[in-house]
Amino acid sequence: MESHKEAQPKGEFKCQLCGLTAPYTYYGQKPPNTRSIVLLEESYVMKDPFTPDKDRFLILGSQCSLCSRSVCVGTECSLFYSKRFCLPCANDNLKAFPLEIQEDMDKKKPQPKSFPSKKMDAKT
Amino acid sequence: MPSEKESRPRRPGREPSPAQWDWDCPATRRRLEELYFREQDYIRAGSEDSRNFWAFFERLRRFQSRRSERECEPAVSRGPAEPPAASRLLDLPREYDARYRINLSVLSADVEGLARGRRLDPGPPREQLSEFRMALLHYLDFTQKQSFAKLAKLHRERAALPIAQYRDRLLRAVAQNQVVVVAGDTGCGKSTQVPQFLLAAGYSHVACTQPRRIACISLAKRVGFESLHQYGDQVGYQIRFESTRSPATKIVFLTEGLLLRQVQREPMLPGYHVLIADEVHERHLHSDFLLGVLRRLLPARPDLKLVLMSATINIRLFSGYFGGAPVLQVPGRIFPITVIYQPIPKEEASTSGKSERLDPRPYLRVLQAIDHKYPPEERGDLLVFLSGVAEIGAVLEAAQTYATHTQRWIVLPLHSTLSVTEQDKVFDVPPPGVRKCILSTNIAETSVTIDGVRFVLDSGKVKEMSYDPQGKLQRLQEFWISRASAEQRKGRAGRTGPGVCYRLYAESDYDAFSPYPVPEIQRVALDALVLQLKSMGLGDPRTFPFLEPPPLSSLETAVRYLRDQGALDEAEDLTPIGNLLAQLPVDVVVGKMLVLGALFGLTEPTLTVAAALSVQSPFLRPAHANPDCATARRPLESPHGDPLTLLNAFNEWVQVKSERSGCSRKWCRRRGLEEHRLYEAANLRRQFQELLRDHQLLEVASSQPSDSYSRQSRHRERRELHRLWRSHTETEGRKRKVLRLQDGAASSSSEEEEEGGARGRGKRSIDIQDVKFKLRHNVDELQAASSSVLSSSQLALLKLVLCRGLYPQLAVPDQLNSSRKDSDQIFHTRNKQGVVLHPTCVFATTPELLQAKEGSECGGTQDSKDGLSRHHQLLAFVSLLETNKPYLVNCVRVPALQALLLFSRSLDTSADCARLVADGWLELTIPDAEAALRLLSAALQLRATWEKLLNQKLEGRGREPGRQPSSQDVSVLTRGLLEFLQIEVLYSLRRLTGLEKQVLYIGPQTVAAAPRLPGLFQGTEMKPDEVKGGHRVTDYLTYNCLATDTDLYSDCLRSFWTCPHCDLHMPFTPLERMCHESTCRPPEAPLEEAAGSSSKTTALHRLYHCDVCQQEFMFTPTEILRHKKQHQ
Ligand SMILES: [Zn+2]
Ligand SMILES: [Zn+2]
């Protein structure tokens, strides 16, 4: 009934691995109206579309710290461990991660179908 | 970053908390909330979020304590292992901590400072603060993951829709062609995806039409959701009473009817770049008409794109209509469905054929079959297609009994007359081991999609309004469905997995079904369509290039009807009132009432009646079934008829709402009223009010509270209402409820009671409908309008207004009604004999109100053989509905003589005017010929004045006040009409027999017995009537054309008569007398006096000053003569 002003989309975020697209309203580490929260990476952020609270945000994705490709935060596309790694990069550097992370990655291995081989060729 | 330092890795559970620390203590939690969940923080104290957090926190602590017990030792040995060299390459932290997996952090320097500096008490210990903050981070991470998972799921689902593969092809086709047809079956996703594809490709100003309002809302919500904008922003909808359109709106979902209205206002539709017409295969009247209108528009708007969306039915028709537009065919997504033909056995069919009630046995057998064949763990609901609400009722009752017995079913009805809340129930999920059995009309065929249906039971029947253009009679009839509908129904079983479709007919029946449903344009009244077509300047409806032309007879009937109603003139052009009616989205009859009511200052009650008549009756059917309900209803019932009962009900309801708003729901339930429809009526009423204002038929209201205090308090109230509304809409996206076994709809009213009660006990006991109502309406204004009691003269006028609006929809009581039982009363309309009153009608229970019995004071003429009475009455009715019997719906009673004299399109008289025939079917005989003449003469004058003022009102709209009918003229007319209504004269009323109708007129005469006073009658020339004989006095009155077996030359017989006005004394024929009287009528002179005259005076009483006795009298002309004689 009432329309309150909302942030206009800045552009469209697209995950280069899974193709997920969504309009983002903010890129950076300090989304508006979230005083006490900071992001630890430069991220694509939108207003959380699944809650009516207009101050809630949703982090869509960011750039892989190694290959700079835009990837979504989905666990099948990327991993965050103090920085963002796209899964191809993470797999290439698996040994660099603590065992806890490596175990998690191994668990995911059986379903590599979501990463078509042509997308695996990115190098560090 | 300070937070980094604070959140140094720490193994949970290692250091014991101080003994006094208790996470579960409310005070502890409050202290932490004060620090972290402040007004400006991401999570606010007391919010849903903070409750979720604490629940999460408890789970987290449980999880951590379990893990620390389990992993204590190995964790220590593994933890500080030498980091691999590679990790330094990536610049990763030296030591593993789960915290590094979280990509956000909570800043809290200010918080910590606050905690220590503010109070004497030391605040929470550092360790606990840190633990709390870790939990908070995990919680935030968790909510992010949750929301992102939803986003990813949405994306996956959209990508999996068949239409997704056609995105590029569609966009190419739209770019290259002006018209594109998208043909795709259920489940291909066209309705939700095509609009989004177009938006994403950069198109804006998109309108997407839907046949149903409900689809507009749900699609706008869905598309808004999928395109991840809050709805109301870029995606909006517009339906009759509601709009979420804003300047930011890029796509709007609206009904076909509404888009047609927009074409009417702006023929080029400048506001749109792309039009999507969805579900065109359903062939609704508006849809077909819209396509016709758009086909004409396209050449003039080469930049406009049109996308037609249809099921894969009859695609060639649409493509061909638009010059061979390209077709994009998208396969549906459907699982295999097994069809089982189970025709109803002959013996059952024949027994049920006679009784009016549907035999539920074949339906129960399918329920049983499902129970036998499929284990309850295998989920899957049953969707039953029935022809109508009555059939749903019959099966509901039986299925309910079966369900109670087996505890394996929840039975729910679904049809459009249910309230939205009731309809919503079908989307809830049954508990494990229980199936939903949804009993639906064809609403579930296309417009409502229910997930989880595995079984479909198809009766093969549908009830549709059919229209008999000859009788202008609407019939609700049962038909076999078409093969296309049967396939559509079947398809509903295969949306989520393989399904089964039971058909209660034989395969040979199926083969005999017609391929497609009959388009609506072929089977409904076309009045509104013709009116709209005329007002769009589209010329002769008979030659309009429809997609498939309607029967010519329907068009002819519509044109004739509009002419009868005064909306079209003889040349079939719009009259001023027709022009206005074309702009009102209501039935012609209702529109006329509104205009007429405005003339007499009866706008408020007319608005209410018009609105109440335009929605479904709020009175639920079985009032007699429940005596309490019938008793509670009685005070609302008006002895004048249903429209006035509706007026009473609405007004009372508004009073209840404004005085004790929370109670209105209960108030309605007690009286068997469907409140939803009263809300609809209130909305419609407001829309009518705005329409009247827009068309300058109603002054702009200036009823704002004048003083600043009341303005402020009104403002405060509205703010509070908005808050309630918002908090409702925020929680509205509720999850599907799990149904309980007792949720089956045994009786919807008791169920609602339960629901209301449960809500009352909960924390939010607001009635959201009530909130909406108050936001939408100025309740004070509405209350003021509905609290004024109509005076008896206002009531009489209102009835006259209704009757003129409804004319010629009149019914006459059968002459033998007084000797019939209450329920057997019979009526006749001009075209239909032997109709009965609808059971909800006031007169169905109190038929004595209609009997023309004389009161005892009138000299006991009751039941006289000659049928003479002063009180014959007619029923003006809103509609004639044929189900198993023809029913009169919404009747108001009116005095027969006056109504016929005032409204008949054709009045034929005998030479002495004592015998009159109205509209060629009702004969009035007035033994007192002199009285007859007086009445006729008065009626002529009233009609002329009324017509003149009405035209002034319509033509003078928006002009300077001088062009408006003067209030004096209006009050003169008002008084005239009231006095006319009070005239009492004995007369008989009779319906002519077929034979009599054939020999009614004398026909053109060779020897013209022309009256010798031509041109005297109000300046109109009297011409011999070429068909009927006699002479035409006005366009409706033909004098002396009735065949009579007594005296053909009576019109030439003159008798001496003294004119009461000019005292002229000479021999007159009746006609000459009438002419003279009408020209000689003194101007407005006696009217001031009439105001003060007692109610006994009639239109014919006037002030008479006797020169002889120097006194003034109120005399009728006869009395004047008599008085004069005294002095002679
Ligand atoms: Zn991705
Ligand atoms: Zn990478």
Automatic annotation (TrEMBL), chain A:
<dbReference type="Pfam" id="PF10170">
    <property type="entry name" value="C6_DPF"/>
</dbReference>
<comment type="similarity">
    <text>Belongs to the CDPF1 family.</text>
</comment>
<dbReference type="InterPro" id="IPR018785">
    <property type="entry name" value="CDPF1_dom"/>
</dbReference>
<feature type="region of interest" description="Disordered">
    <location>
        <begin position="101"/>
        <end position="124"/>
    </location>
</feature>
<protein>
    <recommendedName>
        <fullName>Cysteine-rich DPF motif domain-containing protein 1</fullName>
    </recommendedName>
</protein>
<feature type="domain" description="Cysteine-rich DPF motif">
    <location>
        <begin position="13"/>
        <end position="105"/>
    </location>
</feature>
<dbReference type="InterPro" id="IPR042426">
    <property type="entry name" value="CDPF1"/>
</dbReference>
From TrEMBL, chain B:
<dbReference type="InterPro" id="IPR011709">
    <property type="entry name" value="DEAD-box_helicase_OB_fold"/>
</dbReference>
<dbReference type="InterPro" id="IPR056382">
    <property type="entry name" value="DHX34_Znf-C2H2"/>
</dbReference>
<feature type="compositionally biased region" description="Low complexity">
    <location>
        <begin position="702"/>
        <end position="711"/>
    </location>
</feature>
<keyword id="KW-0547">Nucleotide-binding</keyword>
<dbReference type="Pfam" id="PF24485">
    <property type="entry name" value="zf-C2H2_DHX34"/>
</dbReference>
<dbReference type="Pfam" id="PF00271">
    <property type="entry name" value="Helicase_C"/>
</dbReference>
<feature type="domain" description="Helicase C-terminal">
    <location>
        <begin position="369"/>
        <end position="537"/>
    </location>
</feature>
<dbReference type="Pfam" id="PF07717">
    <property type="entry name" value="OB_NTP_bind"/>
</dbReference>
<dbReference type="InterPro" id="IPR007502">
    <property type="entry name" value="Helicase-assoc_dom"/>
</dbReference>
<feature type="region of interest" description="Disordered">
    <location>
        <begin position="702"/>
        <end position="763"/>
    </location>
</feature>
<dbReference type="GO" id="GO:0004386">
    <property type="term" value="F:helicase activity"/>
</dbReference>
<keyword id="KW-0378">Hydrolase</keyword>
<feature type="compositionally biased region" description="Basic and acidic residues">
    <location>
        <begin position="1"/>
        <end position="14"/>
    </location>
</feature>
<protein>
    <submittedName>
        <fullName>Probable ATP-dependent RNA helicase DHX34 isoform X1</fullName>
    </submittedName>
</protein>
<keyword id="KW-0347">Helicase</keyword>
<dbReference type="InterPro" id="IPR001650">
    <property type="entry name" value="Helicase_C-like"/>
</dbReference>
<feature type="compositionally biased region" description="Basic and acidic residues">
    <location>
        <begin position="718"/>
        <end position="733"/>
    </location>
</feature>
<feature type="domain" description="Helicase ATP-binding">
    <location>
        <begin position="171"/>
        <end position="331"/>
    </location>
</feature>
<keyword id="KW-0067">ATP-binding</keyword>
<dbReference type="InterPro" id="IPR048333">
    <property type="entry name" value="HA2_WH"/>
</dbReference>
<dbReference type="InterPro" id="IPR027417">
    <property type="entry name" value="P-loop_NTPase"/>
</dbReference>
<dbReference type="Pfam" id="PF04408">
    <property type="entry name" value="WHD_HA2"/>
</dbReference>
